[in-house]
Amino acid sequence: MKANFNKPDFSLVEIPGEMVLWKDAFMIFSITDLRGISENPDFSVGGVPKVTEPSSDLGVFVQKFFSEISLPNAQNKSEVSDFSSNGIIAKLGWQSELDFVGNTSINIKLKGSHRLSFSPTGKTTTVQLKGPWGNPGFDGEFLPETRVVTEAGFSARWKILHFNRPFAQEWTALGVKLSGSEFGVNLIIPVDQYQKSIRTSKYGQLIIILTFVALFLVEITKKIRIHPFQYILIAAALIIYYTLLLSLSEQVGYNVAYAIASIATVTLICFYSFTFLTSRMLVALFTGLLLIFYSFIFIIVLQQDFSLLIGSIGLFLIVAALMYFARKVNWYGEATS
To answer: Which label site among 87, 159, 213, 308 has the fewest CB atoms less than 10 Å from its CB?
Structure first.
């Protein structure tokens, strides 16, 4: 990271030159999670390396510094700017105004994490990011001007002006809010076996409802009596299916586990349906519907970008099919043939 600080004009904030304590000047690099640092950071000002120290309480450090001085325009001294309390402090070691150097550079190596965000504190903030991650999510208050995303990685570039953010370039008060203008990249994890299992479980109620609706239509149209306890046993099999799926996916992977759990559950319900369905054709029809339901859910779970579209179209077709088969049902009397 590189930054060029212009020499501050203290007359703009009505601070006399003799009040400026150049020997107490320091640079703060705020970072929310110090655990992300994997190597000793390299700070330099004007090409001269600076000694750095970590801090887990920058707010108290700044509060203490301001409490030791008296500024003409200082306001809200009881408040602390809302930058992260974690960060790195570098003492600049200046003795007078003549020692001021504005060219700074920071070389810091970070471990992979969930997201990386920036606050545009520069008068012109330019950020260029690239990494070997094929599923980035660009979020925050500003989207990148340019971006390229491939399966092998991504690259993006932002340019933020000080006109675009809700705080000034320099101030003397402690209550200045630096939040509300962050931007960056969110490292989206592709659909893995645990996410697939979670997404499958969210469709659990849908499969149970569709199964019960199919049984209810068979009961009405074919004049078959199905006992409530039989409905409960089928619901229990459908619920246990998800525990079976999760436990198997930890051992053999999601796809194989889904196939085993689905076939086992459908087979169990198929053989049990012989006890209340009157013909093998109805059993075959009911079994086929269950296979269609589980295949439909599997297709939705595997999709990352089109799951909502495919799910909506599939549900529309299922409702249309149910309406078609229920068209001859006389709901206030016996079923018509």
So the answer is: 308
